[in-house]
Amino acid sequence: MRILAFLLRLMPILAVGVVLHYVLPQHDIVRIVNTYQERQDLNDWTRIFWSDPSPQSATLVNRDVQFIQAVRKETFLLGFIPRDTTEVMVYRNEDTGWGWPFYFKFDTASLQTEADDLRSTPESPKWAVVTHYGWRNGYLSAFPNAIAIRPVSSPDETIIPWFNIAFFVIVIFLIGMVRAMWFQFRERMIDPAMDAAGDRLDIAQANMDARRSKMRRWFDSWKPKDRR
Predict the structure, then answer these.
(1) Cα separation of 181 and 197, whole Å?
(2) Comparing 221 with 134, which gets the higher pLDDT?
(3) With b meaning 16 or more CB within 10 Å and e meaning fewer, what string describes 62-87?
(4) DSSP string of 82-109?
(5) Per the UniProt record, which residue ranges are transmembrane (predicted)?
(6) How far apart are CA 94 and CA 101, in angstroms?
């Protein structure tokens, strides 16, 4: 039972962690090799991995999507430390508009132009930092959505995720505030009410015991003396 209770408590935490890992911005150091446009079918459940920037697109079963092909520097330790190896990566380039997640991206055409300008070859590489959200999954045809691109001078550029750091600091601060407010509320309101209810229950129990004792003595008074 303890294991089951632990798993039930762990599942909401894991669910929140998965959602945050998908929607929070991530940064990749890449060399862009190509950009292209392709029509994508959106008529099954994998539509959740594509943006829905306008009300009209909700009724479409397919649409043209722009993509950015790149060679990415592999990293470890949650992407903070780059390695010497590379891997291929494909990003989609879609507006998020006013929808979820709230990146308010409206510059898909400009971003595609920036990506075209940064295309390079292995002999004369140009490196860039692609800020994106989402996952790459070939089986589900899921692509991370590029939010911003900026050139860097070296593939060993150090990237500090300031937004994510600030986000978690604020979340921890708010959780601490809510926790402190809850403890204060419980100390001022709930605990005194529970103590008062306990006192009333003790008094009622004592009165009940006194009445029972009185009734028992009254019944005993009707018994013969030899049976008392």
Answers:
(1) 23
(2) 134
(3) eeebbbbbbbbbebeeeeeebeeebe
(4) EEEEEEEEEEEE---TTSSS------HH
(5) 159-182
(6) 12
Beta pairing partners, 62: 41
Question: How many C-beta atoms surround the C-beta of residue 148 within 10 A?
Answer: 16
Cα separation, 183 vs 170, in Å, equals 20
Element holding 39 (H helix, E strand): strand 26-41
pLDDT single digits (tens) 10-25: 898 899 989 999 999 9
Tokens describing residue 18: 């998965």
Question: pLDDT (tens digit, 9 = 90+) per residue, 39-92?
Answer: 876 766 667 776 765 544 555 667 788 999 999 987 665 555 666 778 899 999
- Of the candidates 137, 125, 136, 131, the one whose C-alpha atom is nearest the C-alpha of residue 33 is 125
Judge whether 129 and 149 are in contact, CB under 8 Å. yes
- Mean pLDDT (whole number) for 140-166: 90
Tell me the pLDDT band of 189, cut-offs 50, 70 and 90.
confident
Name the residue ranges covered by the structural domains of the chain.
25-159, 168-227
In whole angstroms, what is the distance from residue 24 CA to residue 224 CA? Answer: 86
Strand-strand pairing, 127-133 and 145-152: antiparallel
- Structure tokens that stand for 102 in this block: 């709230």
Compute the distance between CA of residue 117 and CA of residue 99 in angstroms, rounded to an integer: 28
